Amino acid sequence: MTVVIQRAAAASGLIGRRVTRMNGAGNEILILDLRYADIVPSAREVRAIHRGAGLAFDQMMVLFKPRNPASQPFVRIYNNDGGEAGACGNGTRCVAWFLMRETDAQSLVIETAAGLLECTREGEFSYCVDMGEPRFGWRDIPLRKKVDDTRHVDVGAAAIDSRLSEPACLASMGNPHATFWVSDLRAFDLPAIGPKLETLAIFPDKANIALAKIEACDHIALWVWERGVGITRACGSAACAALVNAVRTGRTNRKARVTLPGGDLTIEWRESDNRVLMTGPVEFEAEISLGADLFDDDAG
User: Fold this and answer.
1) DSSP states of 106-160 as a string?
2) For the chain, which domains are there?
């Protein structure tokens, strides 16, 4: 076993590096700062970190040198299966805290695959992220076939659960999202049906699946199966998509509280410029060093 660990240690430049463990409204986040290193984690290494004691995460936010002069870092967002996501609002708030904790700055710009995201400090542990503009075109989401109106799409969910016969509302917030309107969130076995719904044939890149209950014109309750992750206590981009989809279908105001198992987020779809703002909490949990044993060659 010692030989295996030594061989892995020689191969991975991540050994000994520290990760910051946080959560955003319950969304479990790791931050790995590689701005000053010439390293890009492999999918295998990401999965290995997720399996480590005290390291399990929904998303790992990996910081690199900025590519755009308008941003502070460039951030790649990894799901715990090793795949990448285009956006993670809860993780972006955690990155904002990580970068602003030792400065007097009240705002900064973070670049992700979804574009430039402006983050503003609202309080010591509260941040607002400009998540950009939602996209509704069938190619933008994306979907496998042309759909004229993505507000009402029969994605075939009724074949998985007959109670999901009402068409889904689809949008992209950097990631593909399907919102299903339901009257009782817990009537569904989302851990069981989530894997089947995210891989429906209409979604070439899979999709984040959200069950949404409209509590009031300014309040949505949400339960999310996140592609590449599974059941999550919070998903910021899904909360944004749910609010946008609720507005598009005449269910809520343009600003609402979205309640997830991990806590509340305030989402606003600003009419003046079509941008979606997400405000919510962050919480620091621990800093942990990555040990050589995480990258044992026998790990999958």
Assistant:
1) SEEEEEETTEEEEEEEEETTEEEEE----B--TTTTT-SS--S-TTSB--SGGGT
2) 2-132+283-295 (3.10.310.10), 157-274 (3.10.310.10)
Q: Which of 108, 128, 119, 111 shows the shortest CA–CA distance to 64?
A: 111
Give the span between the Cα atoms of 121 and 48, in whole angstroms: 33
The residue behind tokens 């400090």 is 121
Query: What CA–CA distance (Å, rounded) separates 131 from 110?
Result: 11
* CA R_g for the chain: 19
Whole-model pTM: value is 0.90
With CA atoms as reference, report the closest residue to 190 among 160, 234, 155, 154. Answer: 160
Region class of 153: left (phi > 0), else alpha (psi between -120 and 50), else beta: beta
What whole-number distance in Å separates Cα of residue 38 and Cα of residue 151?
Answer: 43
Q: Which residues are catalytic?
A: 88, 235
Q: Could you read off the pLDDT of 178-207 as tens digits, one per residue? A: 999 999 998 999 999 999 999 999 999 999
Put residue 52 in one of left, alpha, beta given phi > 0 → left and psi -120 to 50 → alpha. Answer: beta
DSSP code of residue 252: S
Q: Is the pLDDT of residue 11 over 60?
A: no
